[in-house]
Every structure is written in structure tokens, then in C-alpha cells.
Amino acid sequence: MTLLVTGGAGFIGSNFVLDWLADPAAEPIVNLDALTYAGNRQNLAALADDGRHLFVHGDIGTRELLDRLLQEHRPRAVLHLAAESHVDRSIHGPGAFIKTNVEGTFTLLEAVRAYWSALPHDARAAFRFLHVSTDEVYGSLAPDAPAFTEQHPYAPNSPYSASKAASDHLVRAWHHTYGLPVLTTNCSNNYGPLQFPEKLIPLMIANALAGKPLPIYGDGQQVRDWLYVGDHCSAIRTVLARGTPGEVYNIGGWNEQPNRAIVHTICGLLDELRPDPGGTYARLITHVKDRPGHDRRYAIDARKIERELGWRPGETFDSGIRKTVHWYLAHAAWVAAVQSGSYRDWVATNYAGRG
Length: 355
Ligand code: NAD
Ligand code: DAU
Known about the structure:
By secondary structure, the chain is an alpha/beta fold. It is built from 13 helices and 13 strands. It has a domain at 3-190 and 228-254 and 293-315: NAD(P)-binding Rossmann-like Domain (Rossmann fold, 3-Layer(aba) Sandwich). 44% of the residues lie in helices and 15% in strands. The protein is globular and about 65 Å long. The structure holds nicotinamide-adenine-dinucleotide and 2'deoxy-thymidine-5'-diphospho-alpha-D-glucose (DAU).
């Protein structure tokens, strides 16, 4: 019994693989990842001597590779996390998002369908394709609107969310048309160890420690629902074990906060844990030009996964953000290593001209 995980060298994928294999009785993982700028084998260094982890450097868009891996390893489930994941990058260069998130998911679905169709009856019934998606497919909420349920209409606003919405529709159609036993999860904003410092929380921690400006887009009153990555991993495990094929499960942290509040919390924790003789880190906060098409509010109604599968987040935001700041303080070398030349080019592209 094996799992095939795509995107397992990225932020959530590597947390998932590490979490899964922390159990000595866990099934092996074949980890397929293209190692884009966001993929990092160092995230998986702790598994170097673990025979249950097979890393494969490759693209979900390569059909022959997928066919070979499926035939050789005969997984009982595919967990699909590989994606281009950063909204700002999707605004600057949407092509890669269509290629991986739409075409790549299509190629993966077709390879998996061919493999699954040929399985013996019991293995076919037990097989699962778990698609990891996002709350951004539902679009933006008014301040007083109820949180997104699984019935909320799709209204993606960025090239990233449109590409993820397209992939969700493909996954749904492969279930309805071909009977592929799929599970889809739509999760809110994750944070935690190993997150690439292009995303809000690790970017703010890294910039603060370097004495650089903390760039808040627009008025900073955009609301996100933050979930600790370990809780997302436990939700994925729960859905894989007990979810009903064809169903969608929204995953969230019951923790809506405006971006400004998040940045102030990070500054407060750094003031406590790594005081700066120059004064509070909040002095570095700068308001910059807004993200085009910026969604104002996301919020997840996670009652279905709680009611039907018994999952709830284990961390509060206070406990999760404290762990996260501790992790980044203890892993300065990891941060320095990922702030390569291409990272610096990205920072220059994204923040130049925001004023
Ligand atoms: P990430 O950008 O950190 O990692 C993505 C990984 O996918 C990288 O390791 C990258 O190398 C790999 N990859 C990219 N293109 C590939 C390709 N063509 N073939 C194989 N591998 C490829 O992303 P993340 O934040 O870990 O997100 C993982 C998944 O979870 C994504 O599908 C994302 O849409 C979804 N998601 C993310 C969040 C969040 O807050 N980060 C929230 C909800 C859902
Ligand atoms: O909601 C789930 C989504 O959360 C995932 O599907 C995406 O993969 C993930 O990247 C994340 O998308 P966001 O756009 O919400 O995340 P990001 O960290 O880029 O931004 C969070 C908020 O902070 C958003 O309102 C934009 C704002 N922001 C971000 C950056 C990078 C700033 O104000 N300044 C910044 O420099």
C-alpha cells in the first residue's frame, strides 16, 4: 500500500509528507515534485534515510512518467497538491498557472483514470484521488456575509483562483462522468514552518528580522481565515480516511483576521522573542499600492467536515503563530537559502512601483 503525493516538496506537501511518515506504521509515499522555485528538497532532509519516502523529480504534465509511476508503485490513493500557488505571481505571469493547475491536473486525472480503470474490483472501490484546493475559488465575501459553505457559487477573481476553480471542475467531472472516486478539499490560508517567504506571514517575519519594510497592500483590512498547516495536514488525512467519494469538504481555522492585525501580532511576538534595539518592529510597517483585483474577505464554514468526519483544528491562532515565529527564528539558514537570486528578482518585480 502506497500513496502518490504530488507537490510534496512545497510548503503544505512537505509538512504533509513529514507528518505522515512520523508514524512508524505509515504506508510509504512516492513524492512527485517538479522542484519549481517553491519546491525544496531540503524540506525533506529528515527523510534522507527513510526507505518509505521515494522522491521523484518530475512534472505532473508528463504523462509517460505518471503512467510509469502508477504501474510501478500501484498507489491506493493519489494526493494532489502540486500547483502554482501564489496570487501575486499569477498576476505577473498567469501562463504557468494554466499549465500546471489546469493542464497538469487534466494530465494527472487522465493517467489516474487509466490506472484506476484497470484495477481489480475491490482495489477500484477503495481507491481515492484527493484534490487539494482553496477557498479562493468562491471569490470575495462582503463584511457581514456568511462564511463559504460547500454550496457557495464559484466566483474566482485572480488567475490563480480561476486556474484552481478550473481544476476543481475537472476533478468533479471525472467523478460524475467516469466514476473516479475523488475527494476535494477547499482550504483557507495556511501558515506554519517551511512556508516560502513570498506569502504574507513568512515574508513579514523575514523582512522584520532583516530590518526591511513590512509592505501591507492597500489599507490592510482584507480578511483571511488562517489555519495552522499541521491542522490542514490532519484534515487531509481525515478526508482521505473517511470522506465520501464525490464530496467536497471546506477546511478552515475559524480564525478571521485582517492583514494589519496579523502583521501587528507578528511584530509583537518578535518584540518579545528577538527585541530590536532600534525599537518595535511595527515601526517598519509600510502601506503600499494594493494588489490588483484584491479579494476583500475569505471565511470558511467548516461545519460539514466537523459534523460528518469529526475534524476540528487543534491549534488556536495564538499557539500556531507563536510556534511559527519560533520556527523561523530557529531556521535562519533555511530562510537565507531560499532567498536566492530568483527570490530577490521576484521581490524586485512585485514590490517595485508599489511606492
Ligand atoms: P507551494 O507553492 O509551496 O508548493 C507547490 C509545490 O508544487 C512545489 O513543491 C512545486 O515544486 C510543486 N509543483 C509546481 N508545479 C508542479 C508541476 N507541474 N509538477 C509537479 N510539481 C509541481 O504550495 P502550497 O502552499 O504548499 O500549496 C499546496 C496546494 O495547496 C496547492 O494546490 C494550493 O493551491 C493548495 N492550497 C494552499 C493554501 C495555502 O495557504 N498555501 C491554502 C489552500 C490550498
Ligand atoms: O486562501 C487560500 C490561499 O491563501 C491559497 O490558495 C494560496 O495558495 C495562498 O497563497 C493564499 O493566498 P493569499 O493571496 O491570501 O495569500 P498571501 O500570503 O499572498 O496574502 C495574504 C494577504 O496578505 C492578502 O490579502 C494579500 C496580503 N499581502 C500579501 C503580501 C505577500 C500584503 O498585504 N502584503 C504582502 O507583501
